[in-house]
Design a protein that fits this description.
- With 552 residues, the chain is α/β, with parallel strands linked by helices.
- It folds into three domains: 5-218 and 432-488, Rossmann fold (3-Layer(aba) Sandwich), CATH 3.40.50; 221-310 and 391-426 and 499-552, 3-Layer(aba) Sandwich (Rossmann fold); 312-389, Phosphofructokinase, domain 3 (Arc Repressor Mutant, subunit A, Orthogonal Bundle), CATH 1.10.10.480.
- Helices cover 43% and strands 16% of the residues.
- It has 22 helices and 15 strands.
- Strand 14 (483-488) and strand 15 (491-496) form a beta hairpin.
- The radius of gyration is 25 Å and the shape is globular.
């Protein structure tokens, strides 16, 4: 099989570790910190997790570790959507295991959590692992979205682990996956199965985040990949001077990706879902805001520009959010009648006749294609699949209609031609940046240190990430510390609280202070391709978001 020159060279890249993890592994010991507690619903979470809630935070320091060399067999699972750097988490985990005891074994369960339920695994050896080091993707063992959430599933997991002598599981995933890891850890503890569970924070969306998880892995690579593409489009727009580009960016529940890409590229417009919700902006007001910006630039003979749109925007626009909730409930109750409709027109009429007057008004102004997308198959939670809603085309179409009306009224004389894009899968499996290669390797190495400390229900935590890797801090926090109760399937469930863009945070405040200038003037920044070799300030730089958050 042919291999690219970059891939060959990346195989030899040795990821950097926090200083403490570069010590002889036998001389690193866990240091117990303060007891922790969930920020919300403390009593309820404690009742649900009596064995793993309220545990202390953990860091590492030099000292004798008598148990780290114990022979262990560890299982690892990749869960959920792909994110750049997953292979390096496994690489760091493997290297730490072998440094502790060359006879340790790592079993990778295939296809995500279903791999452990089906007892489908592969033994990870150095020869097997070598072609995956410092590469993107999850193809080393595959991933999946099966949820581990029932006692029957937990018992199957325990049975499979005991069959292979596995005493620890490492689950690499996002908020839902790590919620499952916390529930599994509590169950194993309650039943006395003697199997540790450690999580690792993954999601390019950036919404698995707190003081101890400063960034989820993959976010850096994905946003740099998208920013390169956005910069290329900005350069083209500034060259051709005839198109407005509407770019939808991955990120359903939070706008971290859109905000980071805006900070990297300085587009004319970037919508932030959290601000839209907080200020209760309507769809009409958003369209007017974009049209006003287009018109203002047209006065300067700049009939071109770039608009960034978070994937999940529609769920944050109050009247659209209410419409979606109403449609979700309607389809759940009347799925038989809805399914009997023979074409899209009949399905649209079926729903329209049953909506409240307010939602019916909103639904009626949407283009036919968007109505059809709102009525597509629901996700496993019964919710609309927002990634299928072409918000970029919706806004481009509605802005065009408003500008046409203004032109007929004589209040607008510019030209308006659009191009639409969706950047999502382009960033999920990209070659990891140096930052993500280092960070992911450190998370995996650190995960084994938590295992060696006989801990369970913890998530691997590496902090101080705006500084050079040698100054990073390694440790762990109980997953329960990040949890609260939310409504799921009609009842309150413990879940990790998603971290949304903070409107009083430094990254948004910087964006807010500059966006008026970016809107009227052409202030585009062209980040260029990800760099792996050269000066540290170019190759090892972290995100603009993290740099602003940790500015000293």
């Amino acid at each position: 099989m042919d291999i690219s020159p970059l891939q060959i060279v990346r195989y030899d890249y040795q990821p950097k570790l926090p200083a403490i993890l570069r010590e002889d592994i036998k001389t690193i010991q866990p240091v117990v910190g303060d007891e922790t507690a969930p920020a919300q619903d403390k009593d309820a979470i404690k009742a649900l997790f009596p064995h793993t809630c309220g545990l202390p935070s953990v860091s590492f320091a030099k000292g004798e570790n008598k148990t780290i060399t114990t022979k262990r067999t560890v299982g690892v699972i990749l869960s959920g959507g792909q994110a750049p750097g997953g292979h390096n988490v496994i690489s760091g985990l493997y290297d730490a295991m072998k440094a502790a005891n060359p006879h340790n074994e790592l079993l990778g369960f295939k296809g995500g959590p279903s791999g452990i339920l089906d007892d489908s695994y592969t033994l990870i050896t150095e020869e097997f692992l070598a072609p995956f080091r410092n590469t993107g993707g999850f193809d080393i063992i595959g991933s999946g979205r099966t949820k581990l959430e029932t006692s029957e599933q937990f018992e199957v997991c325990a049975k499979v682990c005991k069959k292979h002598g596995i005493t620890s599981l490492v689950i690499i995933g996002g908020d839902d996956s790590n919620t499952n890891a916390a529930v599994l850890a509590e169950y194993f503890k309650e039943k006395g199965h003697g199997i540790q569970v450690i999580g690792c924070p993954k999601t390019i969306d950036g919404d698995l985040k707190n003081e101890s998880i400063e960034i989820s892995f993959g976010f850096d690579t994905a946003t740099k990949t998208y920013s390169e593409l956005i910069g290329n489009i900005e350069r083209d727009a500034n060259s051709a001077k005839k198109y407005w580009h509407f770019i939808k960016l991955m990120g359903r529940s939070a706008s971290h990706i859109a905000l980071e890409c805006a900070l990297e590229t300085q587009p004319n417009i970037c919508l932030i879902s959290e601000e839209v919700e907080a200020t209760r902006q309507s769809l009409a007001s958003i369209v007017t805001y974009i049209a006003d910006t287009v018109a203002a630039r047209a006065e300067d003979k700049s009939n071109f520009g770039v608009v960034l749109i978070p994937e999940g925007l529609v769920e944050f626009i109050p009247e659209i959010k209410y419409l979606i909730e109403e449609i979700n409930n309607l389809l759940a109750k009347e799925i038989v009648g809805f399914s009997a409709c023979y074409d899209s027109a009949e399905r649209i009429n079926f729903v329209t006749e049953r909506l409240s007057p307010e939602s019916c008004t909103v639904f009626s102004i949407l283009p036919k294609e968007i109505k059809e997308q709102l009525l597509m198959d629901r996700d496993p939670h019964g919710n609309v699949q927002v990634s299928r809603i072409e918000t970029d085309k919706l806004l481009a179409s509605m802005v065009a209609a408003q500008l046409k009306k203004r032109k007929n009224e004589g209040t607008y004389s510019g030209s308006f031609s659009t191009m639409t894009h969706f950047f999502g899968y382009e960033g999920r499996c990209a070659f990891p940046t140096n930052f993500d290669a280092d960070y992911c390797y450190s998370l995996g190495y650190n995960a084994f240190m938590l295992i060696g400390g006989d801990l369970t229900g913890y998530i691997s935590s590496v902090t101080n990430l705006s500084q050079p890797a040698t100054e990073w801090k390694a440790g762990g926090i109980p997953i329960t510390m990040m949890m609260n109760l939310e409504q799921r399937h009609g009842s309150m469930k413990p879940v990790i609280k998603k971290a949304l863009v903070e409107l009083d945070g430094a990254p948004f405040k910087y964006f807010e202070a500059h966006r008026a200038q970016w809107a009227r003037e052409t202030c585009f920044v062209y980040p260029g391709a990800v760099q792996y070799f050269g000066p540290e300030q170019v190759c090892d730089q972290t995100t603009r978001t993290l740099a602003l958050e940790q500015a000293k």
